[in-house]
Protein: Carboxymethylenebutenolidase
Organism: Phenylobacterium koreense
Amino acid sequence: MGETTTIKTDDGQFSAYVARPSRSKAPAIVVIQEIFGVNAVMRGVCDELAAAGFLAVCPDLFWRIEPGIDITDQSEAEWKKAFELYNAFDVDAGVKDIAATIDHVRGLPESTGKVGAVGFCLGGLLAFLTATRTDSDASVSFYGVGIEKNLVEADKLGHPLLMHIAEQDQFVPKEAQALIISQLKNHPQIAIHTYPGRDHAFARIGGENYDASDAKLANGRTLAFFKQHLEA
């Protein structure tokens, strides 16, 4: 069971969900939300990372619009609300908030100082930008939306990035996927895995497109990646 903490920035302060591992000192992972806020799915991701030995923190990135968003993907009204939030969201400000979260976590006494990031959907784009714009030690992007519009940012990448791409992603057209892969596949810091037959959010437990087998595969690759780059 996690807890809530407050992260302060020059623009104001926002809350974050924190899940702690059993060990007293651990590397940390910033969990970057989908368009549904810091909800049960994101808290569950944090709890699973904590069980695997990481200090996991999920910041409320919608705080500038409406603090405390916690909705699901189970109703039409919630989807409408989620897309309203998505359309109002300032990506650049969000990355700055992630950077502030990384700085906050890195300075905690229970942190080893190594901090990674993992994001899903909107968070998948933000994880890519976190890898290029912050000092995250290792980042993972799950089915990020809009990455193809930001590929030039890869030139700034200084730390490892792992990407999971759903081949039937309804929000990332085949042309966009092809562009992402062709532009990034030979980058020395980037590893890309594609998942045939999978649609967007195939790793979201309880979601319409959830696939237990490929979710387990992607999550296993993610955990191995973090162990390699954050525990060395």
User: Anything to note?
Assistant: The chain has a mean pLDDT of 97. The domain at 3-230 is CATH 3.40.50.1820 (Rossmann fold). DSSP finds six helices and eight strands in the chain.
